[in-house]
Please model this.
Amino acid sequence: MSGIPAWAVRGAKCVCIVGDWSETKRHVVDPEGLMSYPAKDAVYTIREVRVRYVTEWNELLVGILLVELVNPIAAGGSATGEEPAWDIRSFRPLVSDAAEREADVGLFTHHLDKLPVDA
Model:
């Protein structure tokens, strides 16, 4: 990942795009089964944005904490003594229907202005 997406800020609304939090991942991060997981297509509010460089993977990871889901410090966060963060790649920004429609139409209005009119 190249950095923090511009939309990833405290208070921003986002939508979960992942529906399967595999049992393998759950056992690594949450061996006691105490965590709550985001639901696919559910809307959440960003509580905190975290950036970590993972030496073993040679990768910069961006994670978020959600207002609606507060989890205990688990195995996945115990190295830092923090609540585990959710991978930003599992979310997208929430875009209102009106904004989407305006953006969609806005892409084509310049073509409409230049069409010749047959009389």
About this structure: Residues 13-113 form one domain. Residues 97-106 form the longest helix (10 residues).
